[in-house]
Amino acid sequence: MNYEKISNEEISLDNFDRSQEVKRVYVNDSGKLLLKDQIWTMDWSLEHKRKVAANLKSDDCIAYAVWENEKVIGFVSVMKALIGSRMVLDIIQVDQAFRGQGIGRQLFDLAVAEAKNAGAKELYISACCSEETVNFYKAMGAVPTDDPIPEIAEAEPYDIQMTFDLKGRYEI
Hints:
This protein is an alpha+beta fold. It is built from four helices and nine strands, in the order βββαβββαβαβαβ.
């Protein structure tokens, strides 16, 4: 596997498998996270995959991809502009066939390193409410925040707003 910073060259996610079978989701109930049964399949259309690929090359973000052979099997993106002392984790995904192998952790570490290099104090995360997604971020050391970034929280009302303190693994 090869991890590379994405520049303006062509990147294709056409064959990327974003699918996820969701069985339970976290809901924020007056500041307390509760798990509720909710069964659905999350996936992306080809059009959405192409939109995400274009966003990964945006001048507004710093992005990395991990490749196996010539296929993208994971990627992460952070927004360059800080919001206060926070850098926003825009997106992190690992292809369905490659989950559970530590790729997500390595991509998260790349995002943390970029946030540290930018002088941020926290990495801000608007996490999909699925149990697996929130548990991934908790395992990385992120915690739900009681100080969400309003425009992000309002745009994704079902997401769980979280932060990762950069002093958790890296000294600032």
